Amino acid sequence: MAENTSRRDKDNGGKGSPKEKINRENLREVLALFSYLKPYRGRFIASLVFIALSAFTTSLFPLFLGKMIDAAAPGSAASVSPGAGVSAFGFSLNDIHWSLNTTLLLIFLQLTIQTFFSYMRVYLLTYVGEKSLADMRKDVYSKLLTMPMYFYSERRVGDLSNRLASDLAQIQEAVSFTLAEFLRGIFTLIIGLGFIFWIQTKLALVMLSVVPVIAILAVVFGKRIRKLAARVQDQLAESGTIVNETFQGITVVKAFTNEFLEIGRFVKSIQSSVSLSISNARYRGAFISFMIFSVFGAVAFVIWYGARMIQTGELSFGALVMFVVFSGFVGGTFAGFADMFSQLQKTLGATKAVREILRGEGEPVNLTRAAPDINYRIQGNVRFDSVHFNYPSRKDISVLKNISLSVRNGERIAIVGPSGAGKSTIASLLLQFYYPQQGCIYFDERAAGSFPLTQLRMQMALVPQEVQLFGGSIKENIVYGKPGASDEEIQAAALKANATGFIDSFPERYDTRVGERGIQLSGGQKQRIAIARAILKDPAILVLDEATSSLDSESEQMVQEALDNLMEGRTSFIIAHRLSTIRNADKIIVIDQGTIVEEGSHWELLAQNGLYKKLNDMQFELES
């Protein structure tokens, strides 16, 4: 699924959902999403009934209007030749006679009923659309949360979120508005055609004879306009992605004084969009001009032909007015179908994208709060047995080769090596973000695959180099490690993490907002919040991925003390860049080019005069 989605994104420039052809397969995709309407099918069916009734009552207005004119000018109707009003349906419109006052009352009665029907169709279909789309949003968001790490590594998160929001908004518009207008158009078209043939069959055939010519030319223009409109939307999506990326990396932008560069990127994207929009405007202008000429020319021709029928006594004046208004209904419906067809194509593209996500093979994680299961409790013993690994996106490059190591409960294992050696990959395999192509990872001598993924991850905690905090309060970020924890537990975790000092210095203390991604806090403060979060989780296995490498000496000391509290009594994997922080580790694993080349204590490895000693000497020289 990921490969298909990636390919589709590439074909579309990575922006938005493309329009899809209307075929059986794509329509089947749309119908599959109609399963979300099932819980609300009663209201949905009622909305369809009200759509039909609204279309029918609206179509009565031209009939009453024509009869009002005939009532005001009775000589016009009386001059119609006997039998001239008999239509294809076998009975005459001239048999209907109402007084002027009766017709006015009928019009207001029709408007009152039609107002109620219109209100109900809008309310019910909006209700169904909003409810069903809320369910769909939940399912899509839930599915995305279960997608494996490689799914996100192959995509720009900003582009994914923009596309997803656009896709669901398109489907929502289709269910809440386009579907109603399409069905209403179908009903109006059927009823309108029925009325114009009832009024005068010969005049109806004359009017319809010009429709194919207009329709063919409209399709030619419309196809070009839709292509240009799609390119405009793609360019706007790219502009949105630029904005998203710029704001996410605003610190880097300002640090490198590249505001002008980002403005240039954005302006270039906007100018491309403007150029495409202007080109599209030329085609739309020509199309609109053509449609105005065609429609009004057709109306003039129909009125001319109808006027001749009035002269020959084949038609009354009121019937001609009735016919022209009904023709306007039919013509307007035809014109609306062109836009609805375009919207349907967009919806098919959006539906395909959403269905690809919903069909995707996500991780088997619990989507409801799971309680720890004693049958899957682990003590903290870990063993890598001949593990080989390649990232899914780089299958030709071996990242880890024949990794075998054993860690006992409570041990502190440091993993060191040059950049790109595979240190962080070991952390990802421990957390089951990825799975080895060969070999196996064991927890307490049970294969990792024998554990429910949620139960396994519940007993592990990660403190990364780049801490990701959420935009809420300090308390909300700490309690993320154990949802539902008491204030006493939160404060105890913050105390062990050496975080109470700076937390108490804030006026709002634990309710202090940290800003997006913790921008209001320093690096050391964010790191201690992450440590408090991990302490609160109380994991059996702890993974520290270069947790102090980006800190200054003072912050590093505070964080290192907090880490020592965190690691106490737990199996700890310490991926280290600064070798001075792992001298007291029980065992140090040295990795180079995906292979374990050395292992032992700090002093043992120094005595071997190998890679570890070389790395240690290099750091000592740099620090001195």
List keywords for this structure.
four-stranded antiparallel beta sheet; Rossmann fold; disordered N terminus; single chain; alpha/beta; 624 residues; 9% strand; six-stranded mixed beta sheet; ABC transporter transmembrane region fold; 3 domains
Question: Would you write up a description of this structure?
Answer:
The protein is of the alpha/beta class and 624 residues long. The protein has three domains: 2-359, ABC transporter transmembrane region fold, CATH 1.20.1560.10; 379-459 and 542-553 and 567-624, P-loop containing nucleotide triphosphate hydrolases (Rossmann fold), CATH 3.40.50.300; 466-538, P-loop containing nucleotide triphosphate hydrolases (Rossmann fold). It is built from 21 helices and ten strands. It has helices at 2-11, 24-33, 41-72, 74-78, 100-146, 149-153, 157-199, 201-209, 211-248, 250-255, 259-311, 317-359, 423-430, 453-457, 474-478, 487-496, 500-505, 523-537, 553-567, 602-608, 611-623; strands at residues 382-389, 400-407, 412-416, 438-443, 446-447, 460-463, 541-545, 571-575, 587-592, 595-600. It has a six-stranded mixed beta sheet, with helices on both faces. Helix 19 (553-567) links the parallel strand 7 and strand 8. Helix 7 runs antiparallel to helix 8 (201-209) and helix 16 packs across helix 18. The longest helix has 53 residues, at 259-311. Residues 1-16 and 77-89 have low confidence and may be disordered.
